[in-house]
Amino acid sequence: MTRQRILTGDRPTGRLHLGHFVGSLVSRVRLQYEYDTYVLLADVQALTDHAEQPALVHDAVPEVLMDNLAAGLDPGAVTFVLQSAVPEIAELTLYYLNLVTLARLQRNPTVKEEMRQKGYGAQVPVGFLAYPVSQAADITAFGASVVPVGEDQLPVVEQTREIVRKLNRLFGPVLVEPEPLLSPVPRLPGVDGAAKMGKTLGNAIYLSDPPEVAARQVMRMYTDPTRLRATDPGHVEGNVVFAYLDAFDPDTEGLAALKARYREGGVADVAVKERLIAVLEELLRPIRVRRAELEQRPEYVHELLRQGTERARPLARATVDRVVEAMGIRQW
Ligand code: TRP
After folding, report:
1. Which strands form 36-41's sheet, in the order they lie side by side?
2. Closest residue (by CA) to atom 5 of ligand 1?
């Protein structure tokens, strides 16, 4: 029996951080042998909000690929695909654009929030507004049935499902309708307590951060603003340091005990932060080691992407051909 397929991806605009890790990378690593897994380096999508910095996008591609490998993806099991080298995705996008209204894209909560963050207003690039449509092409091109994503991407996968249903209703069952897959920790706050960790927000901890940089970010973290002294009772809920411990500390019993003492005013913030620094170091050390090895082998990383893209492209070609045939155009 052939395995079901996973397709997920990253916009290469910089290195990956812990938000990417908990939102999507952990699911990729966990499911990579159970599913036929495809990871897209979405450079075309990255251009939708970096149109004037193609060099930045280009240079981020191997960085993101190395982050994926360092986080535990097995190059023997996973297919890495460069989006710009699969023009069939762009072709599908053009067909799908006719199945989506402007009003629907403007209502998409993810697009709305990202537009607000970037301050676009009416000056939003059309490509950016329409990125959920090209993401529908990413997902359907490879016939993926499962899409591991962070919480912020759920509305984008929902958009894909709508496009699939509409196309299948109009032209027959051509596309696979995908399901999103949320990880146990679908969202991680920024170290400053902002709802989301983001590169431009400067509130992220990167998978490739050296120990002292990661530690400095932990020391910056928001704790409990109502607490003045270590002997005051502390709040665990809404406390960024505990949100991270919840996400990463494998010793759940020890963590529960620490929370209890914190609530009673028995632990200083610094002690909680030191525990988090140790926990993150356990997680990041092996990632850092693997990444340093990969950095010594740029041709290997390049070749992996080239071969993966070559393997993947015929799948996308077959999907375009099926769609076009179902619509009955191009039959002259
Ligand atoms: N939009 C995703 C993000 O910003 C990246 C992405 C591109 C993606 N294509 C995808 C995610 C396809 C899942 C499936 O993180």
Report:
1. 79-82, 36-41, 5-10, 146-149, 179-182
2. 10
